[in-house]
Amino acid sequence: MKKIAFAISLLVAFHYAGFSQTSKLTGIVRSAADSSVLAGVSIEVKGSKGGTVTNMDGQFSITVRENTVLVFSAAGYASQEVPADGRTRLNLFLQQSEKAQLSEVVVTTALGIKKQQKTLGYAVQEVSGESMNKSRTPTATGALTGKVAGLNISNTTDLFQNPTITLRGKTPLIVIDGIPDPDADPFKLNADDIESVSVLKGTAAGALYGALGVNGALLYTTKKGKRSVLNVEVNSSTMLQSGYTVVPKVQTQYGDGDQGKYAYVDGSGNGTEGGGWIWGPKLDQKVAGTPSGFYETTQYNSPVDPVTGKLVPLPWISRGKDNIKNFFQTGLLSTNSVAATIGGDKGSFRVSAAHIYQKGVVPNTGLNNTSFSVGGNYALSSKLKVETKLTFNREYSNNYPTVGYGPPNILYNLLLWIGPDIDIRDLKNYWVKGQEGLQQRNYNLSWYNNPYFVANELLNGYRKNNMFGQATFDYQLSRDLSLKFRNGFNQYSIDQDNKEPYSYIAYSYISKGNYSVTNTNYIDINSDLILNYHHKISDDFSVSVTAGGANNYRNYKSAYATTDGLTIPGFYSLTNSINALKGTSTLEERRTASAYGMVDLEALRFLYFSFTGRYDKTSTLPVNNNAYFYPSGGVSAVLSDVLKLPEAVSFLKLRASWAKVNTGFIDNNNPYAHLTVYNIGTKWNNVPSLVWPSTYISPSLIPQTVLSGEYGVALGLLKNRINIDATWFRNKESNNFVNVPQSQASGYTSVLTNANVFVRKGWEFVISGSPVKTRDFKWDVGVNFSNNHLWLKKSTQTTDGYITYSDTYSGSHLVKEGQRTDMIYISDARTPDGKAIYNSNGMQATSPYAQPFGNAAPKWIYGLQNTFSYKSISLTFSVDGRLGGLIYSTTNQKMWWGGTAPGTVNKYRDDANAGNSTYVGPGVVVVSGDATYDSHGNITADTRKYAPNTTAVNYISFMQTTSGAMLNHYYYYSGSYLKMREVALTYNVPTRWLKGVFKTASASLIANNLFILAKLPNVDPDAESDNLQTPSMRSMGINFNFKF
Amino acid sequence: MNCLKISSIALLLVSLVSCKKFQDFQVNPNNPTIADPSLLLTNLEQTAFATISTDPALACRYLAYTEGASNSQYYGWQRGSFTYGNISQTVKMEQEAARVGKTNYRYIAKFLRSTFIVNMTQEFGDIPYSQMMQSISKNDFTDSAAIRPVYDKQQDVYLAVLNDLKIASDSLSSTAVAIGGDIIYNGKIDEWRKLINSYTLRVLISLSKKESNTVLNIRQRFSDIVSNPAKYPIFASNDDNGQLPYYNITGNQYVYYNDNSMKTDYYLDSSFVDLLKGLKDPRLFVFGEPTTASGLPAGDFSAYDGLVGSAPLAYNTSKRGQGKASQINRRYAYDAINEPSVLMGYAEVQFLLAEAAFRGWISGDANAFYKKGIEASLEFSNYNDTYSASDITNYLGQPGLDLQTGTELKQIVTQKYISMFMNTGWQPFYEQRRTGYPVFETAGSGVLNGGKIPARWMYPSDEYTNNAASVNNAVKSQYGGTDDVNGIMWLIQ
Hints:
The complex is a heterodimer of chains A (1044) and B (493). With 1044 residues, chain A is mainly β. The relative contact order of chain A is 0.11.
């Protein structure tokens, strides 16, 4: 026995021969906060593969060499390096990482340069990838909702639609590992690959990205190899869309028809079929003398009497009370990923694979998303390092729903334009018998499509391959000087096809079948060469200088072809076209060449200055004006490092920054927007045509400029238990690319030129802290709220101070200098105190000039993240929303118009059905006088006298003409809401149960979109607009995470 | 590896991806910058000859609408819009024609521009004319007259149009370089001359209230054309019609083909039905459908009834629901080709001659012109040979159809009105505004505007934004400072 032991030790000794003495080191790891023992702490031997973890009692045992350095790390704690120094016993206390001083927080800034947050003169907020990988959203971007002050993410309820991202009111640049991604496809990034997201909010932050970064940037840093033992992580989430957060409520008492009449003829909608309205007879009316005892009328599913050849009346009863619920299926979001990383002295690498499967709530819809990624780094020599990453991603769907109000939208045919007389399940058989493939079966064949027909036959196919990555070489020229060369690219190809079946209806169109194909190829290449010099002059002064050059090239190519009718129904091929094929092709190229520099100064250990300058030359402007320069400067003063402050104040920093950014991109989607060309006109009987544009493009366009200033304060209280950060910014936008309207009698309706000055101002607050912290229980909470609004400061092209302006909120309207730009105008006539004005016929009157109604932009947006931890259990939830601002709701307007809104169930409706005009619209009529308007539509004199409207009209005609807009705030509703965004209840399995198989394991119950409190009825205001959205679904599921 | 090597390799890599010069990006590869005028002509013809719209049909009491309260039907309209964008296309076509030396395009441009101008001045009154199009023709964006053109007196506009039309007719040459892209006359210059001269007659008749105006001298101009057919040929049959045919190709189909509202919400107006029934006019069978309640065949006059254009919507939807109203004929929604869109047809020319003869502007038998016009209209409208040649003869042979003393103008204009059902744009409305025929029924309580038929449209609101001083002057000098749909413009004073 002893001999054997001796032999083994000899072997071990031999193994280590030539190295130094080995010894066994044991010890216990505890938390510095409360001295509790820490299980599962990873202990790695620096520079080798060896390592261990602490057991449930915090104990560990490891064989080490004399000069070994051990790295202790555990989630939630700052890792610590300890030299073995020949010790045999080591008791260690780990500091909790969140206790790290604010002054030590490092964030990623422009060009991927990591800087200490305390040195920055501008606002940066970082979100860790960890916070995004439990409760899943279809895109990694969606998971940022409500987490960053100033970042507004509008999530759509529709499948496979991008969330809308605005940062300080504008669309920010997306950067992945230092490479700008102008396509900003939120579906291409695997959430489990994200290490962190750094949000550079202002123009100053983005100054180094040039024109691309004029609206700030979201910097995604992905996980790469780390120096460590082999780590494998598996993350799996499955969520079911098992209920409705918001689902429209419809009336169930009146069926299809008009003026209380309905009798099916042939489905064309005319005559007694009532034109497709849901203003038909009352359902479930008992009458004597019918076979069923109910009122009966012919319906689309009436059998034909074999003797008379006429349709047999069927009872008029409410069969379709649950059409929406009966039609939709349970949606599913399943995310599975695996990643492995390993690393040593020279280098490391990481590979990952992920798959997301999404099953839509609409039958026959879904989305697959697969990602593979490999990345790593290696020290090629002591001076030259290389880092690289390559990701392949494929998004593919055989069918996803078409969105927006209109016939291809399922909701159009399922919610708005189907009466409760129809049970949706009776329509599952969607072809007319004997005309399969040619004629859909539906209750109405001139206006609407059978929802099952749309889901199964009108198919949107989409396959996109994304490839992106980069290679970076870093060469240390001397102690102070280094050179970096980075080449990155984004590439994608999209193969899209649309199948349109025979008899598909889209307003004034009945399809004879169509097949269309779009193929798109895109690539951009970004190259940067960066020289970096860092020199510490003395303990009190140090300087670092960065200088670089960059080139950006994009190439977008797309070709589209479509049939004009299909000769053979259901044979989807371009060769099958009845008339000549139609098609278009597009080639877009763009190039920007740049030089830039940055100087950072540190003085007196509390003052930090940063200056940047960038020079861009772009292909998107006329060559004589295509180069421009922009500078920025920032200062940060960490007062708590020099001043004696009250004890409660543990950190205080003031910051300020200024930047000027130019952009030469007139239209991000058209690099030729500065060139006047003919538009392609309609072919008539295959004779081509051209159209001269109605906009004149000024030949002397210069870049658009944003001048930005921001000021902020960061405050840490009570040993940084409470942290407060406040920012105020002001952006002055001048030389904007504007289509300045002119009298069309001059020859052009507008001139594209540099014009007008706008000012955008806003506040951002972030407050975070840990109000309760005991040995077992901890409460972390973070709140942010922000706003921004845009004002017209100066109209440079008109003398009267008015401009014509349009934005996403409302169409073209006038804005006067000094006014906010987001005012909504409506043309329904109203008295100065807001009462509806009626015409002599009892219908709403129209104002000769649209009048202001209210502001569209939210007053504030806010978010709250909250975590309770008790021993191995943690509960995380986040809540967010907005306050104020108006949202127009198409869904509500159409429900009142069409007759499906529950509010239309009233006695006037019964009167109208009986042919009586009894409804008197609430409001007034003008009895004398009139209003005089100036040419801007302002009322200059008003002698109108009013009397209450007394004209009784037919309720149904009234609704069909006015939609009852004056009863429903003109369908502009307050956008205020509060949403329970996500909840995760996580159980971290104690190490002692893992038996060494896993390093850590956790299971979470997760939920998204649990509930919402909102003023907007029937739709989810999260999307910040409503053009007939899919009902908002509640997702619930489970997440497993293993590391081994 | 030293620093120099690395830097030079890196710089080389940077330069590799940036080989294309900035000048090379200054050409848009997707759209042309110069064009043969034929390409512009095709587009212009699509616009100028597209006259089919339900709005005039509702305003002229041919049709009633049941989907909601229509401002055209109830005379509740307010603003109109300018169509100078079309005139820009004519200017561009002239420029391109000058570039390639194809003169005929220039005169066709003059004619097309005249049609756009006439449409606008009839709509509003005074409009910008003498200073229009300077941004495009002189590339002038600085002079305030160029970007904010003044409004010209309606009389001056008409004078300029009449002179332009004469130049166009005099100058078009069938021996000049042939024109292409002509989807109306396939390049036949003589047909264009016929159209231009016929159109000139329409403009002159529309000025009938200015018969004694010595500046315009319309009687003389009218007889100059009619008395010299060799120099000024006019339409001689329906084959000469200035019309845009439709094709069963997506985008080239009849405007209301498969249109849902056309299928479900357009019904004949009862006044129109009564007019045709009173005349035993077989065109009723191609304009409408028998009512479902009647159960009678299409060829029976008593199968037809209409809605009441002036009645409240509920009255009409209720009458419709009882199946007691005639829908517009199915062909308007279900035939991809249906009938061509007419800028001007042969029948109208005959009615113009009839009116001129009646007024004594020309010699000739007013009744003969009038009957030829009716015959041409019946032939044009005979969709799918719904009625026979003898039906036409019988109709024309009705003794009551001939012009009767004292009602000549009423009969001529009424027949012209019938001939323009769902075609020729707002022309029947303007004829009614000029002559009062036929009387558009306004008795029902649905009618807005105080029960009056508007006489014009208010100027477009963007003119108040972009050319305020000019439009305000025009409103002041014509309408006492109030831009109002009931203002009476010079043309009809």
